[in-house]
Specification:
The chain is α/β, with parallel strands linked by helices. It has 14 helices and 9 strands. It folds into 2 domains: 150 residues, D-Maltodextrin-Binding Protein, domain 2; 133 residues, D-Maltodextrin-Binding Protein, domain 2 (3-Layer(aba) Sandwich).
């Protein structure tokens, strides 16, 4: 993320807090702007112990830790309150437990935002408008199947390559949270945004097990406290920023459209087979438990 993004601001806060809570035993240097490479490359570094911390999507682990794919299922959440309840719940803790054998220790889950669709061709207000658009998606099977089912030409690509691909018209569009788009200057290469809120993408702050196992217990406690507080801070920054980012897009000449509820229902119906297809792969019991947590959060809110 660039320095202006809530994630970059929160990670600078994480470094500050980690130093404070460990009496300067743990000093963290933050690298933004994809300086250390793609998500895949960075996670490999964390596994190998050549990079100590990483924050971002866990999508590159989806083939090894199948439960990670739960976050790619479309249209699960009605609002961020439900999302945050799940990020702090049993299912998310279980994903961290499954990660440990890969050499990665989970510290905290935090927000990134609901994903929305942008493109340079035309308004997307209904299902037929998606047909034929060449859309960059994350390199995971659920996202690929979702957009193919909706009629798009889905292209997996590292995010660090997306801006250039949009600039040279190698692809028509992409889908990401609004602040993520704005911070990465999508307004310079995209003309239309459709508020689909189709998937909520959380990010995880993780640490290399090789590094973690060397830390004294007191330092582990300090780093964990710093991670938890920084994660909550990132959520707040995202929530506050979502309130004005649409105005920023409009001022930059990007047309932002809501999708009519009736048209959104048609899109949701279209992707139901994707959920049915991947549920057995993710794990019937895990998916059932995840949806039960969403239902509990929804009832609690009422």
């Amino acid at each position: 993320m660039p320095d202006s993004h809530p994630q970059a601001i929160a990670m600078n806060k994480f470094a500050e807090l980690a130093a404070k809570y460990t009496n300067n035993d743990v000093k963290i240097q933050v690298f933004g702007n994809a300086t250390l490479g793609s998500d895949e490359k960075e996670l490999q570094g964390v596994q190998a112990g050549t990079q100590e911390f990483y924050i971002g999507t866990l999508a590159p682990f989806s083939t090894r830790v199948k439960e990670v794919q739960i976050w790619d299922l479309p249209f699960m959440f009605a609002n961020t309150k439900e999302v945050y309840a799940l990020l702090d719940g049993a299912s998310s803790k279980k994903i961290f437990e499954k990660l440990e054998p890969t050499g990665v220790v989970g510290l905290t889950w935090t927000g990134m935002g609901f994903r929305n669709l942008s493109n340079s061709k035309h308004d997307v207000r209904n299902l037929s408008d998606i047909e034929g658009l060449k859309i960059r998606v994350m390199a995971n099977p659920v996202a690929l199947d979702t957009w193919k089912t909706l009629g798009a030409n889905a292209v997996p690509m590292a995010f660090s390559e997306v801006f250039t691909a949009l600039e040279i018209k190698a692809i028509d569009g992409q889908e990401n949270p609004l602040q993520h788009m704005y911070s990465n200057k999508m307004q310079e290469v995209q003309k239309y945004i459709s508020l689909t809120n189709h998937v909520y993408t959380p990010v995880a702050l993780v640490v290399s097990k090789k590094f973690w196992d060397k830390l004294p217990a007191a330092d582990k406690q300090g780093v964990q406290k710093a991670a938890t507080e920084a994660g909550l801070y990132q959520r707040k920054l995202l929530d506050d920023g979502d309130k004005d980012v649409i105005q920023k897009f409009n001022a930059a000449g990007v047309k932002v459209d809501a999708i009519a509820p009736a048209d959104l229902v048609k899109i949701q119906e279209k992707v139901k087979p994707v959920v049915a297809k991947f549920t057995p792969q993710i794990g019937e019991e895990f998916v059932k438990g995840f949806y039960a947590e969403i239902d509990a959060a929804r009832k609690a809110a009422k």
